[in-house]
Design a protein that fits this description.
The complex is a heterodimer of chains A (477) and B (95). Chain A is of the alpha/beta class. Chain A is built from 15 helices and 13 strands. The chains are: A alpha/beta (477), B mainly alpha (95).
Chain lengths: 477, 95
Amino acid sequence: MSLPTTVAGQLDALAAGHCQAADLIQAAREQGCRHADLNAWISEVEPTAPAAAENAKLGGIPYAHKDLFCTAGVRTTCGSKMLADFVPPYSATVHERLDRAGAVLMGKANMDEFGMGSSNEHSHFGAVLNPWDRQRVAGGSSGGSAALVAARVVPFATATDTGGSIRQPAAFCGVSGIKPTYGRVSRWGMVAYASSLDQGGVIAQTAEDCALVLQQMAGFDERDSTSLQAPVDDYRQALQQPLRGLRIGVAKCFFGSGVSDPVAVAVNAALAQMEAQGAVLVDIDLSHAELAIAAYYLIAPAEASSNLSRYDGVRYGYRCEQPRDLDDLYRRTRSEGFGAEVRKRILLGTYALSAGYYDAYYLRAQKVRRLIAGDYSRAFEGVDLIAGPTAPTVAFKLGEKLADPLAMYASDVNTVGVNLAGLPAMSIPCGFDQGLPIGLQLIGPALSEARLLAAAHQYQLHTGWHQQRPGTSGVPS
Amino acid sequence: MAINDDDLDKLCFLARLALNEGDRAPLKSDLQRMLGFVDSLRDADVGDCAPMAHPHDSDLRRRVDAVSSGDQCDQLTALAPAASAGMFLVPKVIE
């Protein structure tokens, strides 16, 4: 019997007695073996089927963690040589909650080192290949999570998003991903890259699955001082909310230079579909959006340079051999333990924070950040959601942008503004170009996850893009 | 914005990083390009806009100043590359 591959489908099959958790675990393991060449796992674990538990909302569902969620007793590498042997003594709140919900951890997914990358080529453990075309990147930094879901190894994976790291790989791999409002999902035990931007979320095949999983992950956590003390909506119930009357803002800036024609055509077709389902399209202006990349690439590296100062070879993680003195210990540990992209961003952040440049770079970027957030606030006075392409192109070829950091960063052009403003956003599949998936981004005001998930679900009820899987032929209607 | 060797040395000192000779030229070039790119912010009219450090834009919630996780000395020093008697070991800094 063929087992369902979605969270909802697997829960139904378990409830109906058509399969057992052990069958799902075995199927995930076998599918993982078939797709081992994707290099999507950093560590696999030997799972056991959970005993049936009351209120186990995800009981028996296999999943992957992006390898920056701490898992007690299971190594947590952040895709870095620095933490290649790090086994945390505690688990992230996200892990505890999923564990409580009965989900079954299959392993830790590959990622760009400490979340710094847009292609998953900056991992100490090697690049993740795109399941749709193994010559292309899976996107980043949550490339392993997206590839595992796209290849139907696991029905969902956790991921994090600092500047697009859930949405861009979800778009490149043809799956659905939600980056919640900043503070909606606890960051406790989630290794930090840029603390005012980082947010955990979910990658799954469908918006419905994202809703089911996010329901278990979201909520206040007293251990995270930035966790929001706001009630969590019933996401699954909200899925029934129709698109009729929903005002969707369309900003020209999201279709600017760099956005390929096929991507623009597919996204416009998706908008037309939503309009046909009753949504109202409204032109909006996000006048400072073009400054988002520059502001992001000052703020994120500045915060990273501070956060990553903890890796000094003293308390945990990699330590260089035979240091001459303390300064040599620090310098060689950090230079040998961090990869080139991380070293580069630490230096850029150090520059932005250093005396004489702080006002001109970091402080100015923070002021621009407020302008960008203000644009979104004004836009949401007139619309319920904003839509556009997630990424300007489909997945690019491995190595194509490695030598040009600015070209690589440009792939985040439509995603970083959301993080600067702390807003929730989703990417869902909406078409193909040359057999490669295209992502539609939906952005909402703070704490509008239910509205986002509902809009994505309603679109998916009328389209088949999210049901396409690598290796299948034919383009859905 | 030009990055010269002195600038790079100063940054490496501040960030406690050491560079191989072969890494210097490409790194200088990349940093220079990145700084040139972010220089576009100089043209932005920020007026009297207040800097935004955080999406919540409010003070961080404070917790009660009380021990919550107990003594984890053994667990934590077990993670260290070098530890002894409940302390992290580093190269000698005082003669």
